[in-house]
Amino acid sequence: MTAILDRRTTPFRTDLAAGHLRGQVKAPTFVDPQPMRVVTASAPLRREPRPDAALDTEALAGELVQVYERHEGWAWGQLSGDGYVGYLPDDCLRPDQPAPTHRVSALRTFLYPGPSIKLPPLAALSLNAGVAVVEQKGDFGVLADGGHVFLKHLAAFDRFEPDFVAVAERFLGVPYLWGGKTSLGLDCSGLTQLALAATGIASPRDSDMLEAALGTAVAFDDSLSGLQRGDLVFWKGHVGILTDPDTLLHANGYTMTVFSEPLREARDRILTKSFGAITSIKRLA
C-alpha cells in the first residue's frame, strides 16, 4: 500500500511515520506532530537533512509546520499550507508562536527593528509571508516578535487580490530558482501557487499536482486559438500562465527568469528542447 503514497505529501519514512497513518503504512515508530511556525523570512524544505540536498520548496514566514522529528539541526515535517513533506533547518522554526493576522501584499518588504525606514532592516519578507501584528505605530505595524513592517505593504489575512494574473506579472524578471517560492527566486509552479494564494486560492505545489487539481480542461488544437487570460498551460513538468490569449508568463530555465513571450514561440521551443508537447490547458472558474 505504501508504494502508491506520494512522498511529497505523505509524512512517512521507513523508520518513522505520522500517527494518523497508523494502519495505512508499516513503520516501527508512529508519532504525533508538534506544531511550529517559520520565524525566518523563509525556510528551505529539502529532500534530505543536508544543506546541499535538493531544494523541494520553501516555507514562508508565519507558515505552520507539523513537525514529526527534530534531530541534529533539522526538523522533518509537513507544511500545513500545501502538505509538502521534507526537512527544514530547525532554527527556522519555533513552537508556541501566534498565528499571523496579516500577510505581506507587496512583492517584498523590509522588517525593521523600530518604526523608522532609516533603521537597518532585520530581514526582507516576500509576498504572502505571514506576520502577527499586535499594534500600529505611525505608518508601521508592530509585530508580536517586536519587528516593524510598513503597514501599506500588509493586508489582513482574509483580504485578497482580485486578479492572480496581475499578481504573477509583478514577478516579471525575478530569477528562476528550482524549488524557490519568493521574490528572490522561484520556479514555474512556485510562481503559479504564490499568485493563486494571493487571491485566496489554495493550490498544491508542483506542476503535476496543479494540473490534476485545478480548473476545467480547455479543448485546444495546433492553432492554440480560443484561449483567454488566466488559462494555465501545462507540460509534463512545467506550467505557465496566459496574460492574454497569445502571451505566456512563466518562470523557466531557458531565460532563467520569470519571462513573458508569445505562447506559440514557447510551445515550439519547449516541444523540441525540454518538456515536449502541451499536456493540457486548464481554466479556473
Short description:
With 285 residues, this protein is mainly beta. The chain is built from 4 helices and 25 strands. The strands form 7 sheets. A 6-stranded antiparallel sheet has the order 20-25-21-22-23-24.
The SS-based structural class is mainly beta
The end-to-end distance, rounded to whole angstroms, is: 35 Å
Number of β-strand runs: 25
Oligomer state equals single chain
CATH class of the largest domain: Alpha Beta
CATH fold type of the largest domain = endopeptidase fold (from Nostoc punctiforme)
Q: Notable features of this structure?
A:
mainly beta; SH3 type barrels; endopeptidase fold (from Nostoc punctiforme); 3 domains; 5-stranded antiparallel β-sheet
Notes on the protein architecture:
This protein is mainly beta. The chain folds into three domains: 93 residues, SH3 type barrels (Roll); 55 residues, Roll (SH3 type barrels); 120 residues, endopeptidase domain like (from Nostoc punctiforme) (endopeptidase fold (from Nostoc punctiforme), Alpha-Beta Complex). The protein has four helices and 25 strands. The strands form seven sheets. Strands 20-25-21-22-23-24 form a six-stranded antiparallel β-sheet. It has a five-stranded antiparallel β-sheet with strand order 8-7-6-3-9, with no helix packed on it. The protein is globular and about 55 Å long. The mean pLDDT is 97.
